[in-house]
Q: What sequence folds into this?
């Protein structure tokens, strides 16, 4: 074979002329299969099967790093993950909003049924409607407490005061009819609603003081705890209001005990939520669980309904001497309760509208509810 055919020659058929050496070609060398370069083995423009010149593989072939559009390649924390997180949060928020709507839709649907079927459609139905709203609120609180098995964010003092409210009101309306709604809902339905409200309230109170006591937050439920044993701060509301009810009460039942009992329930209900609002304000985060917020909102809505009724009927709450002072006190106490809840109503509305947690201003923020 001629010199041009020898190994290392440069003729046009040179690369076919001789087999590669032991340390070249397929096993070794800059361009062999055993090399670490991209493509078929070369470190740039690969020379056939191992040389320094010749065919260069296309990008992305057999080891080449192929370009990928960033729109299709998202790493952890990238835009793709962010979009996925936003979609997840949006779905959770939408689910929470649907639950909020369903809770209140069920209540309003039941209210319409009661109005058209079980009441006479009289204006006094507002009293029954307000009682229904209270019962609805304490029903929500029981669901929250017993399903979650937690008493967090709930004021036992408020529950104790409401137990007194329902108990004293029942002792009056069961024996006499002077303070019952005029329509047929006052025949029996109003009594049933008040009895159920008492049962729900006592049940929630038992849950917070009994099986779920470990999750109760006494360090935040500290309203009125001055010169009294821990947990007895509600006496600063219960005792003075009892004295006021004894001194100033209407006479619709013409029975001292019955009139005082109903008046005491009316006055006491106007302040019974103060410990709960105080507890909200003392929470360091200001975040209120949504079911607890529904509970308080239902009580406030019930009070608003009753206030609308007594605006037109307060003149009936007169003493035996004809003084309308009890009516004025009833209006004033209910109005002040609604004023105290204005902040809560606003933040509650925004939370339900946006399906976000209800966050109230805390004591340190310079804003407060009570």
A:
């Amino acid at each position: 074979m001629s010199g041009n055919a020898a190994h290392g020659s440069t003729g046009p058929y040179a690369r076919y002329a001789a087999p590669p050496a032991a340390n070249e070609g397929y096993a070794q060398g800059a361009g062999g299969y055993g090399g670490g370069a991209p493509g078929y083995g070369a470190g740039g423009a690969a020379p056939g099967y191992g040389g320094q010149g010749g065919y260069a593989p296309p990008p992305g072939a057999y080891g080449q790093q192929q370009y990928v559009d960033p729109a299709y390649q998202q790493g952890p924390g990238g835009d793709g993950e962010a979009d996925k997180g936003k979609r997840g949060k949006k779905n959770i928020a939408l689910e929470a909003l649907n639950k909020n709507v369903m809770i209140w839709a069920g209540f309003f649907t039941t209210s319409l049924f009661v109005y058209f079927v079980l009441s006479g459609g009289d204006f006094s139905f507002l009293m029954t409607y307000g009682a229904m709203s209270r019962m609805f609120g304490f029903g929500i609180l029981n669901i929250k407490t017993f399903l979650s098995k937690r008493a967090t964010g709930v004021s036992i003092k408020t529950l104790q005061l409401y137990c007194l409210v329902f108990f004293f009101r029942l002792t009056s309306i069961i024996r006499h009819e002077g303070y019952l709604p005029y329509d047929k809902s006052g025949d029996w339905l109003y009594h049933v609603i008040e009895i159920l409200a008492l049962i729900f309230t006592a049940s929630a109170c038992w849950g917070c003081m009994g099986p779920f006591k470990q999750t109760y937050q006494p360090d935040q439920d500290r309203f009125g705890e001055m010169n009294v044993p821990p947990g007895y701060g509600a006496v600063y509301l219960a005792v003075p209001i009892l004295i006021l009810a004894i001194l100033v009460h209407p006479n619709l039942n013409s029975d001292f005990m019955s009139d005082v009992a109903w008046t005491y329930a009316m006055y006491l209900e106007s302040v019974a939520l103060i410990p709960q609002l105080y507890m909200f304000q003392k929470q360091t985060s200001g975040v209120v669980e949504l079911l607890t917020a529904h509970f308080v909102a239902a009580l406030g809505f019930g009070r608003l309904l009753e206030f609308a009724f007594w605006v037109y009927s307060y003149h009936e709450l007169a003493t035996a001497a004809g003084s309308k002072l009890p009516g004025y006190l009833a209006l004033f106490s209910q109005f002040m309760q609604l004023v105290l809840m204005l902040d809560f109503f606003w933040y509650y509305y925004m939370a339900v509208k946006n399906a976000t947690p209800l966050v109230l201003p805390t004591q340190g923020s310079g804003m407060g509810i009570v």
